[in-house]
Amino acid sequence: MDPHLISDAERRFRGGTTVEARFEIPRPGFSVTVLFGPSGSGKTTALRLLAGLERADRGAIRFDGTAWSDADRGVHQPPQARDLGFLPQAYHLFPHLSVAANLGYGLASLNAHERNARVGELLTLLDLKGLEARHPGELSGGQQQRVALGRALARRPRLLLLDEPLSALDRPSQLRLRKELRDLLRALDIPTVLVTHDRAEALQLGDRLVVMDQGRVCQSGDIQQVFDRPTDPAVARILGVETVVRGRVEAISDGMVTVSVGPARILAADPGSLGAHAFVCVRGEDVAVERGCGPSPGTTARNRLPARITALHHEGSLIRISLDCGFPLESLVTRQACVDLGLAEGDQVCAILKAAAVHLIPHD
Predict the structure, then answer these.
(1) Those residues with Cβ within 8 angstroms of residue 316's Cβ, 6 or more apart along the chain or in another chain
(2) Torsional sign, CA 104, 109, 112, 117
(3) Does the reported pTM lie above 0.85?
(4) I want to staple 323 with a disulfide (CB 3.0 to 4.6 A). Which of 75, 283, 302, 307 is the partner?
(5) What is the C-alpha separation between 132 and 322, in angstroms, rounded?
(6) In whole angstroms, how far apart are CA 363 and each of 13, 216, 252?
(7) What does pLDDT average to in each consecutive run of 10 residues of the chain (364 residues)?
């Protein structure tokens, strides 16, 4: 089956900046493709290329076999011809209109009965019943977000585009609404492309991930696969991998690799295609900390590294521990674990990590 959406287009800006929109949605129906990367990486421009709000200077965008954009042929369908819903970062609700009027604003082509019926469906779907007479200024942030989403959905689009849909909300509201938004998108059963720079939001909402940096698509694929197996050090850092260090491959045997990083020796699974050097990638949540580095019969971890605590950083209920193992390593533990172990800056400890938690990236 041909991909439902295939985009291989570029927008070139004066001054030399180029932004790629290069990814695909493999099938119709529910899925969330996340455009992920730091601020300024080109995510919103890529989304605007899909929406028809930017014109491609190279390449083409096809949806369900129809060319939305083709630079070589001079094709550029305007946004209203693409049958999509678009929710920008700023919701742009009309402050002088009620919730019902905002939801029905784009339904002028329907008669009054059909329009009222569709608004009623949206009020029920988005849990806005009883709020239809209120104005945006009388709503909470989460309610405003649902009204804006409803307006994007009013014409039953075949594709939904969301640009940082939770960024206008406070942190507690973001945490509460992530699952609600995922469940709602599943109920809509339409493909969605969503922009975010928040790692937790991407993981909770997405099915596929497109990692962008400096206008370029660096890696794309199944979201968990991309997060677990970044293909280069830049992608690993963008995805929030705290430790990315260069090591020397010492030995490969029985599917396992021994890599030296400074004075330390680390055992990891062999990803194949390794040369003399590799980048060692370790997430903080995969590093445990104990007192004493002697043998521990109760653990299956293959790596036990003597370390010194160089800093402790409080992050809510978690503590980020900076370690010196002959190379810098970070660990993320609960506050209670830190208290139970009585950890303090300068302490000598043992950093423990399983071989499966170490991801190696080949380095030429």
Answers:
(1) none
(2) negative
(3) yes
(4) 307
(5) 52
(6) 33, 21, 15
(7) 84 91 90 94 95 95 94 94 88 90 89 92 88 92 86 89 83 79 86 92 94 95 93 94 95 94 94 92 95 70 92 93 96 93 94 94 85
CA distance 193 to 6: 12
Looking at residue 187, its amino acid is: A
Hey, what are 140's tokens? 């909470």
pLDDT at 265: 95
Q: What gap in Å lies between CA 265 and CA 350, rounded to an integer? A: 14
Please report the DSSP string for 150-163 in residue order. HHHHTT--SEEEEE
Compute the distance between CA of residue 193 and CA of residue 189 in angstroms, rounded to an integer: 13
∠ CA 167-168-172, nearest 5°, is 80
- The tokens of 351 are what? 């950093």
> What pLDDT, on a 0 to 100 scale, did the predictor assign at position 187?
85
What is the per-residue DSSP string for 328-359?
Answer: EEEEEEEHHHHHHHT--TT-EEEEEE-GGG-E
Amino acid, res. 166: L
* Of 19, 14, 9, 21, the residue nearest 210 (C-alpha): 21
Q: For the domain 5-233, what is the CATH code?
A: 3.40.50.300
Q: What would the 3-class secondary structure string for 30-70 be?
A: CEEEEEECCCCCCHHHHHHHHHCCCCCCEEEEEECCEEEEE
C-alpha R_g of the chain? 25
Tell me where in the chain the CATH 3.40.50.300 domain(s) lie: 5-233
Segments of the chain assigned to CATH 2.40.50.100:
241-363
* Interstrand relation of 264-269 and 277-282 (parallel, antiparallel or unpaired): unpaired
Angle of CA points 339, 340, 342, to nearest 5°: 60
Tokens of 252: 């490969």
Q: Give the whole-angstrom CA distance, residue 261 versus residue 278.
A: 10
pLDDT digits over 209-237, tens only?
A: 999 999 999 999 999 999 999 999 999 99
pLDDT of residue 296: 64
Measured from the Cβ of residue 328, the count of other Cβ atoms closer than 10 Å reads 15
Architecture in CATH of 241-363: Beta Barrel (2.40)
Using the Cα atoms of residue 338, residue 341, residue 345 and residue 348 in order, give the sign of their dihedral.
negative
What is the pLDDT, as a whole number, of residue 219?
95
